[in-house]
Design brief:
Length: about 130
Protein backbone atom coordinates (compact mmCIF):
# COMPACT_ATOMS: atom_id res chain seq x y z
CA UNK A 1 0.00 0.00 0.00
CA UNK A 2 1.49 3.29 -1.15
CA UNK A 3 0.27 5.45 1.75
CA UNK A 4 0.58 2.91 4.54
CA UNK A 5 1.49 4.66 7.77
CA UNK A 6 1.26 8.16 6.28
CA UNK A 7 -0.99 10.66 8.10
CA UNK A 8 -3.55 12.54 6.02
CA UNK A 9 -5.43 15.42 7.64
CA UNK A 10 -8.41 16.12 5.38
CA UNK A 11 -10.99 18.89 5.77
CA UNK A 12 -14.40 19.13 4.15
CA UNK A 13 -15.39 15.51 4.82
CA UNK A 14 -19.10 15.86 5.51
CA UNK A 15 -21.08 14.34 2.62
CA UNK A 16 -20.64 10.87 1.15
CA UNK A 17 -21.07 12.10 -2.43
CA UNK A 18 -18.47 14.86 -2.31
CA UNK A 19 -14.78 15.11 -3.12
CA UNK A 20 -13.61 15.20 0.51
CA UNK A 21 -15.19 11.86 1.31
CA UNK A 22 -14.10 10.26 -1.97
CA UNK A 23 -10.49 11.30 -1.41
CA UNK A 24 -10.61 10.14 2.20
CA UNK A 25 -11.97 6.74 1.13
CA UNK A 26 -9.18 6.43 -1.45
CA UNK A 27 -6.54 7.27 1.18
CA UNK A 28 -8.13 4.71 3.51
CA UNK A 29 -7.85 2.02 0.84
CA UNK A 30 -4.14 2.83 0.67
CA UNK A 31 -3.94 2.39 4.47
CA UNK A 32 -3.19 5.99 5.40
CA UNK A 33 -3.97 7.12 8.94
CA UNK A 34 -6.76 9.68 8.69
CA UNK A 35 -7.77 12.76 10.63
CA UNK A 36 -10.97 14.11 9.11
CA UNK A 37 -12.76 17.35 9.80
CA UNK A 38 -15.92 19.24 8.95
CA UNK A 39 -17.87 21.97 10.66
CA UNK A 40 -20.89 19.80 11.49
CA UNK A 41 -19.92 17.10 14.00
CA UNK A 42 -22.75 14.71 13.20
CA UNK A 43 -21.89 14.64 9.51
CA UNK A 44 -18.16 14.03 9.90
CA UNK A 45 -18.82 11.39 12.57
CA UNK A 46 -21.17 9.57 10.17
CA UNK A 47 -18.47 9.58 7.48
CA UNK A 48 -15.94 8.23 9.97
CA UNK A 49 -18.25 5.34 10.88
CA UNK A 50 -18.61 4.47 7.20
CA UNK A 51 -14.84 4.51 6.80
CA UNK A 52 -14.24 2.44 9.94
CA UNK A 53 -16.71 -0.15 8.65
CA UNK A 54 -14.32 -0.51 5.69
CA UNK A 55 -11.32 -0.95 8.03
CA UNK A 56 -9.99 2.63 8.04
CA UNK A 57 -7.89 4.07 10.86
CA UNK A 58 -9.63 7.42 11.31
CA UNK A 59 -10.11 10.07 13.97
CA UNK A 60 -12.76 12.79 13.83
CA UNK A 61 -12.07 16.42 14.66
CA UNK A 62 -15.10 18.65 14.12
CA UNK A 63 -13.83 22.22 13.76
CA UNK A 64 -14.81 25.66 12.60
CA UNK A 65 -12.00 26.32 10.17
CA UNK A 66 -12.97 29.95 9.70
CA UNK A 67 -11.29 30.59 13.07
CA UNK A 68 -7.65 30.37 14.06
CA UNK A 69 -8.67 28.37 17.13
CA UNK A 70 -10.42 25.77 15.00
CA UNK A 71 -7.39 25.38 12.74
CA UNK A 72 -5.02 25.05 15.69
CA UNK A 73 -7.27 22.48 17.36
CA UNK A 74 -7.38 20.42 14.16
CA UNK A 75 -3.60 20.38 13.81
CA UNK A 76 -2.92 19.78 17.50
CA UNK A 77 -5.40 16.91 17.83
CA UNK A 78 -4.02 15.28 14.68
CA UNK A 79 -0.49 15.55 16.05
CA UNK A 80 -1.59 14.23 19.45
CA UNK A 81 -3.12 11.17 17.80
CA UNK A 82 -0.50 10.40 15.16
CA UNK A 83 2.62 12.44 15.94
CA UNK A 84 2.94 13.90 12.45
CA UNK A 85 0.98 15.34 9.52
CA UNK A 86 2.32 14.14 6.18
CA UNK A 87 -0.53 15.25 3.93
CA UNK A 88 -2.67 18.26 4.86
CA UNK A 89 -5.57 18.38 2.38
CA UNK A 90 -7.97 21.31 2.51
CA UNK A 91 -11.35 20.79 0.88
CA UNK A 92 -13.42 22.85 3.33
CA UNK A 93 -15.82 25.43 1.96
CA UNK A 94 -18.71 25.48 -0.44
CA UNK A 95 -21.84 27.51 -0.97
CA UNK A 96 -24.26 27.77 1.91
CA UNK A 97 -26.36 30.79 0.95
CA UNK A 98 -28.42 30.57 -2.21
CA UNK A 99 -30.47 33.15 -4.07
CA UNK A 100 -30.20 36.06 -6.43
CA UNK A 101 -27.33 38.33 -5.40
CA UNK A 102 -29.61 41.32 -4.92
CA UNK A 103 -31.66 39.36 -2.38
CA UNK A 104 -28.73 38.32 -0.19
CA UNK A 105 -27.95 40.38 2.88
CA UNK A 106 -24.49 41.60 3.81
CA UNK A 107 -24.36 38.93 6.53
CA UNK A 108 -24.97 36.27 3.85
CA UNK A 109 -22.07 37.57 1.77
CA UNK A 110 -19.80 37.70 4.81
CA UNK A 111 -20.72 34.11 5.73
CA UNK A 112 -19.84 32.95 2.21
CA UNK A 113 -16.53 34.80 2.25
CA UNK A 114 -15.62 33.28 5.61
CA UNK A 115 -16.67 29.81 4.49
CA UNK A 116 -14.68 29.91 1.27
CA UNK A 117 -11.78 32.32 1.76
CA UNK A 118 -10.88 31.85 5.41
CA UNK A 119 -11.02 28.08 5.17
CA UNK A 120 -8.63 28.24 2.22
CA UNK A 121 -6.01 29.39 4.71
CA UNK A 122 -6.72 26.61 7.19
CA UNK A 123 -3.80 24.37 6.39
CA UNK A 124 -1.58 24.36 9.45
CA UNK A 125 1.50 26.43 9.76
CA UNK A 126 4.79 24.79 8.87
CA UNK A 127 5.45 24.22 12.56
CA UNK A 128 2.72 21.56 12.63
CA UNK A 129 3.87 19.57 9.62
Amino acid sequence: MRLQGQVAMITGVSHAGQVGYALTAAFAREEAHLAISAHKAERVKARAEELRAQGANVIVIPADLTTEEGVQMLAQETLAAYGHIHMPVNLAGGLTRYGPPDELRLADWEAELNNNLRTALCLPAREYI
